Amino acid sequence: MKIEPHENQDGYKIWLSENEQDQLLDHYDEQPVRKLALWLGLQGLRVDEIVDVCFEDFRQMDVSEERYVLRVRDGKTGYRECPVSNDLYSLAKTIKNLQNLRKSDEIIDYSKSSVRNWVQWAGEDLQGQEGKHWKHIRTHDLRRTWATHTYWSLRGDRAREV
Prior knowledge:
By secondary structure, the protein is α+β, with helices and mostly antiparallel strands. 45% of the residues lie in helices and 16% in strands. It has helices spanning 18-26, 32-42, 47-50, 86-98, 112-130, 139-155; strands at 2-5, 12-15, 58-60, 68-75, 78-84. The protein has a three-stranded antiparallel beta sheet with strand order 3-4-5. Strand 4 and strand 5 (78-84) form a beta hairpin. The protein is globular, with a radius of gyration of 16 Å.
């Protein structure tokens, strides 16, 4: 975990290693909606985009292997498509089926503040177990982590422990 204080505001900027990302997701193994919400953040979605995800927003890519992208229709920067893992897609599909949702229903039918709380609560719980700076983690740190890992991947460097 890398942590730095914000320059002009209270709080910290946090970057999670791949192992720490797994720990965060594993924290909500028994609560799939919460796990999906955090996972979407680790795939680069902003909190307001997370709560707008519908199953119809997933699109299978036209490639030889089964791969998916998630359409973000009304994001801060407009329309974009984000590649997502097959496991994330499978979790979203499972939640849709278990909750008997239509394709156009929001999968995470909670407020932005709920998602923010889930991240904070997971951090507080992990803080007690790990002794790192988990208690400072916020939803934007998930997106920051995604951006950093994507940057290093595009550079061709091996995944780095941040």
